[in-house]
Amino acid sequence: MPAPSTKMVPILPAVVAPAIIAVAPNGARKLKADHPAVPLSADELGRCAALCQDAGAAMIHLHVRQADGRHSLDTDLYRAAIIAVRREAGDDIIIQATSEAAGIYNRHEQMAAMRALMPEACSLAIREIVPDAQAETEAAAFLAELHQAGVMMQYILYSDSDLHRFHDLKARGIVPGEKHSVLFVLGRYSAGQRSEPSDLLPFLHDWSGADGAFAVCAFGPKESACALAALGLNGHARIGFENNILLSDGSVAADNAALVRQTVQHAGLMGRAIADARMARGVLAALR
Prior knowledge:
By secondary structure, the protein is of the alpha/beta class. The chain has helices at about 40-55, 75-90, 105-115, 125-130, 135-150, 160-170, 200-205, 225-230, 255-265, 275-285; strands at about 20-25, 60, 65, 70, 95-100, 120-125, 150-155, 180-185, 210-220, 235-240.
């Protein structure tokens, strides 16, 4: 019988860092019709950030919307939302701007928006920013610019094949730096999608603690179970209405803070403390 693979799970360090919980309160698609507590305006995002920080979130994954609710990368809308978050939640919480296309923006517009904003942190989907070989030169220059500016970049990976490509881009210098923050998306943005903790396993075949820090996001009532599975493997988690509005018992959560609180309250079962924003910023800023 062959020896079991040593790449099935990342090797845990002797000292496990506190878990970083990010809240993704609205995404690019959710509207009030999906849940009345979906925050859309700058003021709503600010109040949501404060509630979720109190529940244990160290970061807000920020999407902004136009007046009609449509997804936007408009930098003026971003700046208004950032001001509101700082007013309501203070200076500590990490604000991560999304560059998501959502079927509206092309990669040139996505990169232009992040260049204009130069946020403290941003998320970047590899398959959107570097969709093919022809995009590599432009993407390399863009990523190097953000890296040199000190932007805390998180790379969004939707499959193990995305992760394999990420490693190749890193090896060839398209993705700068040695250690990185990545988000494994467990499932797809589709009606009725329900993620399972086992959806994490294909990603872990090609990831180790030496690569940096991974987080997960998941869909449906097992969102918290998936998050806790990641925490048990020295990962981190993104929670919120962007992907899921259900508590683990299948009931509808009152708000984003209820989803954050559900995971935070059980993190100790996985041997993890929860990072505050100061701790989280230190962990993420060290990934260079």
